[in-house]
């Protein structure tokens, strides 16, 4: 049975990749039955090496990776093409990669999104609205989120002033706990069962979706569930078990919201996220109220949105924190100057957004960590709304995905002096020398962690 599944999947993989290949765009290595299967396999186990091989072979143009979101993914190498992609408005849109990853999960765990509904209706706009709302009230959120971080630090098992903990797991634990405060409130942000389920669900999704992308959509309904379990064997990342735990807590919290909303005191009054007297609105409550009171979304869609937000926020933030923790562990000489800056600025301004913006050393340190440890080898994802003819004459079919090899670009000697060396204050020095776009959130052709152009996130 297993052999038959492997054979069917392999044949379907090659047929899908060759049928959806972009005309005139070479593959990273070559285009043949075994080479395409090899490239799919290489992308799953070590995507950056395959991207590097393609970049070295086609440094002045573009190449295709036979990885199916819906169509083959084209990687753009040439600066002129990247600039061209940056400014496209009507021809290309951002596919929000984490939404596409969740849709892969919907094939094997139905109920999160409307059947055959494409991207979730609310996922196109809600993340941006929530980001803006949370940022607007971040000063009010920060004290409680800091306490959540301290609570996670207290879980460390210190012996003789030292502890042995993995940076990756610890980063996920910190972000899951502090982020859950804004998502579902203070009580669940301290619930160990809920927090473990959040981490296990997200890590299981990351592993599973990398393999699910290898399976054509029409096959997922038949073998998707088998693959999702196969890919997480031997780990604690059981998505199905963690999903049950998350839904149990979501359902209980929703019942509490419902009781409070329709109590005699409130009588259906909605929470206002812009209310200065009540700024710490739980995101789940806000979404739930919008669903129940406005009859705008189904409860299943609200749950799908919660999983989308958890994945997008925790995955991207935890990966950035992981890089910072790893570099601090390797280079303790940075701890003292960073701590001095934090103490001096907080003493004057308190734990506020403006205070964080004033920490130029911390900003530079984090940006250098992101430069060398980006959350993905590819960024600036776009999808063609209709057939697109690039300036070099290549025609990309409607539905084709494009991306930029940011992991390689951020290590080029043409962009950075000694690019493989870690210099935590590199960007402070660049600013002092008159360079622009040197803050963590600044985007440029040589720093593409968050994408670039009109569709940057």
From TrEMBL:
<comment type="similarity">
    <text>Belongs to the cytochrome P450 family.</text>
</comment>
<dbReference type="GO" id="GO:0016020">
    <property type="term" value="C:membrane"/>
</dbReference>
<keyword id="KW-0479">Metal-binding</keyword>
<feature type="signal peptide">
    <location>
        <begin position="1"/>
        <end position="16"/>
    </location>
</feature>
<keyword id="KW-0732">Signal</keyword>
<keyword id="KW-0812">Transmembrane</keyword>
<keyword id="KW-0472">Membrane</keyword>
<dbReference type="GO" id="GO:0004497">
    <property type="term" value="F:monooxygenase activity"/>
</dbReference>
<dbReference type="GO" id="GO:0020037">
    <property type="term" value="F:heme binding"/>
</dbReference>
<dbReference type="GO" id="GO:0005506">
    <property type="term" value="F:iron ion binding"/>
</dbReference>
<dbReference type="GO" id="GO:0043386">
    <property type="term" value="P:mycotoxin biosynthetic process"/>
</dbReference>
<keyword id="KW-0560">Oxidoreductase</keyword>
<keyword id="KW-0349">Heme</keyword>
<keyword id="KW-0408">Iron</keyword>
<dbReference type="GO" id="GO:0016705">
    <property type="term" value="F:oxidoreductase activity, acting on paired donors, with incorporation or reduction of molecular oxygen"/>
</dbReference>
<keyword id="KW-0503">Monooxygenase</keyword>
<dbReference type="InterPro" id="IPR001128">
    <property type="entry name" value="Cyt_P450"/>
</dbReference>
<dbReference type="InterPro" id="IPR036396">
    <property type="entry name" value="Cyt_P450_sf"/>
</dbReference>
<keyword id="KW-1133">Transmembrane helix</keyword>
<protein>
    <recommendedName>
        <fullName>Cytochrome P450</fullName>
    </recommendedName>
</protein>
<dbReference type="Pfam" id="PF00067">
    <property type="entry name" value="p450"/>
</dbReference>
């Amino acid at each position: 049975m297993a052999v038959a599944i492997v054979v069917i999947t392999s044949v379907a993989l090659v047929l899908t990749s060759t049928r959806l290949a972009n005309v005139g765009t070479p593959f990273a290595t070559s285009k043949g039955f075994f080479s395409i299967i090899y490239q799919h396999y290489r992308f799953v186990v070590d995507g950056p090496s395959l991207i590097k091989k393609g970049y070295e072979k086609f440094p002045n143009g573009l190449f295709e990776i036979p990885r199916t979101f819906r169509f083959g993914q084209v990687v753009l190498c040439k600066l002129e093409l990247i600039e061209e992609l940056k400014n496209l408005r009507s021809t290309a849109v951002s596919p929000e990669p984490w939404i596409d990853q969740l849709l892969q999960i919907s094939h094997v765990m139905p109920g999160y999104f409307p059947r055959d509904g494409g991207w979730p209706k609310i996922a196109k706009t809600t993340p941006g609205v929530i980001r803006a709302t949370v940022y607007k009230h971040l000063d009010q959120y920060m004290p409680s989120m800091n306490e959540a971080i301290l609570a996670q630090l207290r879980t460390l098992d210190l012996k003789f002033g030292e502890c042995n903990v993995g940076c990756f797991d610890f980063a996920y634990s910190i972000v899951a706990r502090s982020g859950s405060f804004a998502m579902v409130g203070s009580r669940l942000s301290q619930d160990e069962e809920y927090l473990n389920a959040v981490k296990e669900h997200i890590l299981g999704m990351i592993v599973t979706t990398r393999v699910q992308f290898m399976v054509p959509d029409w096959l997922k309904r038949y073998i998707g569930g088998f693959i999702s379990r196969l890919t997480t064997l031997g780990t604690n990342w059981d998505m199905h078990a963690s999903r049950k735990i998350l839904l149990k807590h979501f359902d209980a919290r929703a019942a509490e919201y419902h009781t409070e909303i329709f109590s005699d005191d409130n009588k259906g009054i909605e929470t206002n996220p812009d209310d200065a007297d009540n700024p710490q609105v739980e995101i789940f409550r806000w979404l739930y109220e919008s669903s129940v009171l406005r009859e705008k979304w189904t409860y299943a869609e609200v749950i799908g949105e919660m999983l989308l937000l958890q994945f997008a926020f925790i995955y991207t933030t935890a990966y950035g924190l992981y890089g910072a923790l790893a570099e601090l562990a390797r280079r303790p000489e940075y701890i003292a100057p960073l701590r001095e800056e934090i103490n001096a600025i907080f003493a004057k301004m308190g734990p506020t957004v403006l205070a964080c913006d004033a920490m130029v050393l911390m900003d530079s340190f984090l940006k250098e960590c992101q430069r060398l440890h980006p959350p993905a080898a590819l960024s600036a994802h776009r999808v063609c709304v209709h057939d697109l003819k690039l300036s070099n004459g290549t025609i990309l079919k409607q539905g084709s995905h494009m991306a930029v090899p940011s992991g390689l670009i951020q290590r080029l000697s043409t962009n950075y002096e000694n690019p493989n060396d870690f210099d935590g204050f590199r960007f402070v020095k660049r600013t002092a020398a008159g360079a622009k776009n040197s803050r963590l959130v600044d985007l440029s052709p040589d720093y593409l962690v968050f994408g670039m152009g009109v569709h940057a996130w």
